[in-house]
Amino acid sequence: MALNRLRGEVIKKVRSAAEAEESRAIIEELRAITDRQRVRIGDLERELARVSPQVAALEARLESLREVVERGHLGTTGPSGGNVDTASIWAEIQRQQEQVRARITAATRFEERLRRLEDGNRVG
Known about the structure:
Layout: H1 2-71, H2 86-123
Helix pairs in contact: 1-2
């Protein structure tokens, strides 16, 4: 009877030690994942900080072009004295608008990645 009790205590301690070791391994793995996510979040934050002023500048430029077109203050001569082609102005506006859209899309993707990484950090 004492032998069975001793055996039961040994089994409990072995299980407890195995569970503790498994817990330590899981904690270490989570630390590694968290460290990688912190690095990635930092990269994404730097990229977003780099792109944001460019997006703002393009939006401002696009808005100023839109205002010029809406007011009808298009010059009739270009810088070299030649006629300004309205179609080329519209093409330039559309090109810049596409650039703005592309950069806004890139910034949105970075924000979404950052959100997912932050959510992953909270779960892990």
